[in-house]
Amino acid sequence: MSPANDGTTPAPQPEEVSGPRSADLVSGAHAPHTLEVVEVRTGMFGTHGSGDTSGYGGLVQPVAMPGASARPYGSWFDEVVDVLAEVLAEAGTRFDDAIERVVVDPPGEHAELTLHVHRDHLVQVSQALRDDQDLRFELSLGVSGVHYPHDVGRELHAVYHLTSITHGRSLRLEVAVPDADPHVPSTTSVYPTNDWHERETWDFFGIVFDGHPALARIEMPDDWPGHPQRKDYPLGGIPVEYKGATVPPPDTRRSYS
Amino acid sequence: MGIEEAPSGFLLTSIEDLAGYFRKASLWPVTFGLACCAIEMMAAGASRFDLSRFGMEVFRASPRQADLMIVAGRVSQKMAPVVRQVYDQMSEPKWVLSMGVCASSGGMFNNYAIVQGVDHIVPVDIYLPGCPPRPEMLINAILALHEQIGDEPLGVNRKEAAKAAEAKALEATPTFQMKGMLR
Amino acid sequence: MSTSAEQETPRTAPRSTRPPVGDFDAGVPSFEASGGDWADITESAVAAAALGEERIVVNMGPQHPSTHGVLRLMLEIDGETVTEARCGIGYLHTGIEKNMEYRTWTQGVTFCTRMDYLAPIFQETAYCLAVEKLLGITADVPERASVIRVLMMELNRVASHLVCLGTGGNEMGATTVMTIGFTAREEILRIFEAVTGLRMNNAYVRPGGVSTDVPPDLVEQVRSTLPTVRSYLSQLGDLMLANPIFKGRLVGVGHLSLAGCMALGVTGPVLRSTGLPYDVRKSDPYCGYETYDFDVPTADGADCYDRVVLRLEECYQSLKIVEQCLERLEASAGQPVMVGDRKIAWPAQLAVGSDGQGNSLDHIKEIMGTSMEALIHHFKLVTEGFRVPVGQAWQTIEHPRGEMGVHLVSDGGTRPYRAHFRDPSFNNLQAVAAMCEGGQVADVVVAVASLDPVLGGVDR
C-alpha cells in the first residue's frame, strides 16, 4: 500500500479517471459505467518527501477497479442474471434496485461474474440464488472483506463466493458499505456456513453483520483494539537488529508503489 | 574407564556434577506443539529419527509431569498467556527449548499477531534456528541442552552464575552497534 | 467447597461429582481460564447446578495432546455425555494475509505455504493459479509445470492423509498407527527434499510455473518409493479397517448427514463420506486434472470410520495419478517449467553448487560479466517484482481437507492489495458442534480427528 493520502491532494473523482489501467483492462470498456477509485498512487519509485530525483514525484495515478460490463456477458452469465432478475421481479423487487452493477472480469475464458448487491437486498438475492432450481448456488465458500480507503462512501466491501454444485458454476457477490455505517445484513439464515466467516470479517475489518447469532471476535483476543486487516491499521512489526544495522518492518520500508 | 576399574570402590565427585549427570538423562518434554515445527517434533519422535534413543520419547501431556518445554512454532498474542501458564505449571527444575525462528525471534512474521520471540514470555535455555528445523537439528539441540544441563551449577553457585550472566549481558554492545563483518 | 452448600443441596440421586457451587462463593479465591464468554458459561453452569442439574463445563485446549494443535474446545457435559460443544480458535493467528500485502506477488508464495503446514503445495498452487488468472497467463503455463504441480500435490495429499490417519490413531492410543504413518510420510518428504530442497514449507510453485525443474533421476526415485508407500498404506489398512477396537471407537461416531454438510459448507472427505462425489478436481478442473484417470471414492456411512476408509482410498487414487504424472514427466523431459514471458519468470536458474545450494554459475557469469542489461533486469524483477492488472480473482482447488479458495485483489501494483484464503479446516471446524453434541466425551476426540483440522490453516 502506498502511504495514505495526506489530505493536501484530493482523491481524483471518477470522471477524471483515465489511466491506461483503468479503462483498457475493463471488458466492455465502452459501456457506460462508474469506476470506483480504489487506490491513488503518487510518485513511482517509492520515495516520498525529499530525496526524489526521479522526476516522477508529482505523478498522481488513480487506480480503479473494473467497471460495469455490458451485455452480452458471455458464457452462462446472461442466463443466471436473467433468471435472477425474473425471480426478483416475482418477489416485487426491481433488478436495478437490488443489483447495482454486473461485472465480468478478468477478460478471457477465465472470466468471473461479480454481482454488486445493495445491502438491503443481500439476503433476498442470496436466498434467490440458493433456492431457485435454475440458479441453485447451494454452497457458500465464505466471506472475504476488502478495505478500499479511497473508495469514498463505499470503503468496506464484503465479498461472498457462491458455488453451484448442481450446475457447476460459481459467482461472486460484493456488498459495499461506508466506513461510517458499516452494517451488512447477516446471511447466516440462508447459508449457516457463513457464521464463522462473518465473525472473521467483523474481527479483521469491522463490518457489522446485523442479525448474526453471535458476532464476536474469532481470531484476535476478545479485548483487542481495532480491526487489524484494515488498510489504516499498521502491520505492527518491530525493527529487526542485525550486526551493524537495523532493518525497519516491511510497512515502513521504502517500497515500489 | 569402566566402573569395574575404579581402584578402591570410591568415586569422588561434586553434587553438582552428579545431579547434572542424572538430570540431563531424564528429560521429559511436554507436548507443546504450535505450528509447523510441531510436525517436525512429532517426526523426531517417530521411527526414522527416534528420539527415544536419548530417552525422550515420552512426551507428557501434563506440564506437571514434564521438565522441558519445546516451544515448537509461532506464538501468537492470543497464545502467549497460555504458554506462560503451561510454563508456570511445570515443576522445577525446568528448561525451555525455542524451536524454529518464529518462536526464537518472530521470524518472517514481523507483524501485529505474533510475539517477536518467546523469550519475551518465558526464559529460554536454547534457541534452535530453522523454518522448520529438521528433526536431526532438534535432536542436536536437545543433545546440546543435555550438555548444558550436565554443567549446570546448583544453589548459591547457580545464583552467582545467573548474576554474572546478567551483568555480562547488560554490558555487552547491542548487536546493531557492532561493527565489522556480519560474523 | 463450603460445607453449607453441600447441606443445602438435596441428595436425591447419586452423583459422580458434586455441584461446583461452593467455588463461586464470594471471598473464595479461585483460578480459571479467562477471556471470551468463559465467565458466562461457568455462571450459567452454576445456575443450572443450583437447580439440581449436573452440568459441567470442561475446557479442552488450547494446549491438549489430542486437539490437533492449538484448538480450544469448550464442552458442556452431563456425566459422560456432551450436551454442548463449542470451538475456540485464533490461538495460531499469524497475520499471514496482512503480511502478504507487503510483499511482492512472488514472495507471497513463501507466506501462504506456511498456512496449512501439512499441505503446503496446495496453498502455493491455489495462490499461483489465482495470480495467473489475474495476469491472464493461465493458458501459457507450460504443460510440464502443470504435471509437476499435479505430481507434487498428489504426493502431498498422501503425506497429509498419512499424518491425519497417524495422529488420529495416536489420539486413540494406537501409537503404531502413528509411527507407520510418519515413517511412510518420511518416504514422501524425501522426494520433496529432492525436488524443492525442503521437507516442509516448500515455496516451490511460483506464479507462471515452478521454481526449478525436477532432478533428472526423480522419476526413478518416485518409482522406487511408490511400492514402499503402498506397503505402508496396506499396513495401515490391515491395522485399522478390520480392527474391532478401532471400529468400536469409530463406527457411527461423528455422524454428519449430507444436509448438515451442505448447510455448514463442509467439503472434502467429510462431504464425500455422505455419498456426494463432489471433488473440485472433477467439477472444476485445474492444472489439467480432466486429463488424468482417477476415481472419486465415496461412502454412505457419514461417520468417522468411513472417513478413514475414504482417506486411505484417496491415497491409492493419488498414487494412481502420480504414476500417470511420471509417464508424462518422462515424455516431457527438457521442456520448460516456467512461462516464456521474461517479465514474469525469474531469470535465475537454480543449480546445486559446490556448497550444496545456490544459483546457476552460468547465470551469475552472464549477469556479472557480460550483460549489464541482464543484471538490471534481474535486479528489478527480483526486488520490485512484476505488476498484475487491476481486478480480483477467485480460484478453488481440492485440498486434502476440502475445497480451498483463494481470493486475490490487485490494485495494479507489485504487491497483492488483499489476499484471502478460504481454508477448508476453518470452515469444517464449524461442524464440531453438530458432530459432537449428544455423544460421549471420548467421541469428541475421534470426531475432531475425522475433520482433520490443521490449525495453521484455520487461523492463518
Automatic annotation (TrEMBL), chain A:
* Principal cellular location given in the protein's record: membrane
Provide the catalytic activity annotation.
a quinone + NADH + 5 H(+)(in) = a quinol + NAD(+) + 4 H(+)(out)
The first-level EC class reads translocase
Query: EC?
Result: 7.1.1.-
* Database matches in Gene3D superfamilies: NADH:ubiquinone oxidoreductase, 30kDa subunit
Looking at the record, which segments are called Disordered? 1-26, 222-257
Pfam families to which the protein is assigned, alphabetical: Complex1_30kDa
The NADH:ubiquinone oxidoreductase 30kDa subunit domain covers 115-237
Query: SUPFAM superfamilies, alphabetically?
Result: Nqo5-like
The family database entries (InterPro entries) matched by this protein are listed as: NADH_DH_suC, NADH_quin_OxRdtase_su_C/D-like, NADH_UbQ_OxRdtase_30kDa_su
Give the Polar residues compositional bias ranges.
1-10
Q: How does it sit in the membrane?
A: Peripheral membrane protein
Sorted alphabetically, the Gene Ontology cellular component annotations on this record are:
plasma membrane
Molecular function in Gene Ontology: NADH dehydrogenase (quinone) (non-electrogenic) activity; NADH dehydrogenase (ubiquinone) activity; quinone binding
HAMAP family noted in UniProt: NDH1_NuoC
Subunit and partners: NDH-1 is composed of 14 different subunits. Subunits NuoB, C, D, E, F, and G constitute the peripheral sector of the complex.
Functional note: NDH-1 shuttles electrons from NADH, via FMN and iron-sulfur (Fe-S) centers, to quinones in the respiratory chain. The immediate electron acceptor for the enzyme in this species is believed to be a menaquinone. Couples the redox reaction to proton translocation (for every two electrons transferred, four hydrogen ions are translocated across the cytoplasmic membrane), and thus conserves the redox energy in a proton gradient.
Its name, as the record gives it, is NADH-quinone oxidoreductase subunit C
Native organism is Cellulosimicrobium arenosum
What gene name does this entry carry? nuoC
Automatic annotation (TrEMBL), chain B:
Cofactor(s) needed by this chain? [4Fe-4S] cluster
EC annotation from Swiss-Prot or TrEMBL: 7.1.1.-
Binding locations of [4Fe-4S] cluster: 36-37, 102, 131
**A Pfam family for this UniProt protein?**
Oxidored_q6
Q: What InterPro entries has UniProt attached to this entry?
A: NADH_UbQ_OxRdtase-like_20kDa, NADH_UQ_OxRdtase_20Kd_su
Output the NCBIfam families linked to this UniProt entry: nuoB_fam, PRK06411.1
Q: What is known about what this protein does?
A: NDH-1 shuttles electrons from NADH, via FMN and iron-sulfur (Fe-S) centers, to quinones in the respiratory chain. The immediate electron acceptor for the enzyme in this species is believed to be a menaquinone. Couples the redox reaction to proton translocation (for every two electrons transferred, four hydrogen ions are translocated across the cytoplasmic membrane), and thus conserves the redox energy in a proton gradient.
Write out the similarity annotation.
Belongs to the complex I 20 kDa subunit family.
Q: What is this protein called?
A: NADH-quinone oxidoreductase subunit B
Q: Which gene encodes it?
A: nuoB
From TrEMBL, chain C:
Q: Which PROSITE patterns match?
A: COMPLEX1_49K
Q: Does the entry feature the keyword Translocase, yes or no?
A: yes
Q: Which residues form the NADH-quinone oxidoreductase subunit D domain?
A: 172-460
Recorded GO CC terms: plasma membrane
Q: Which Gene3D superfamilies match?
A: Cytochrome-c3 Hydrogenase, chain B
Complexes and interactors: NDH-1 is composed of 14 different subunits. Subunits NuoB, C, D, E, F, and G constitute the peripheral sector of the complex.
What name does UniProt use for this protein? NADH-quinone oxidoreductase subunit D
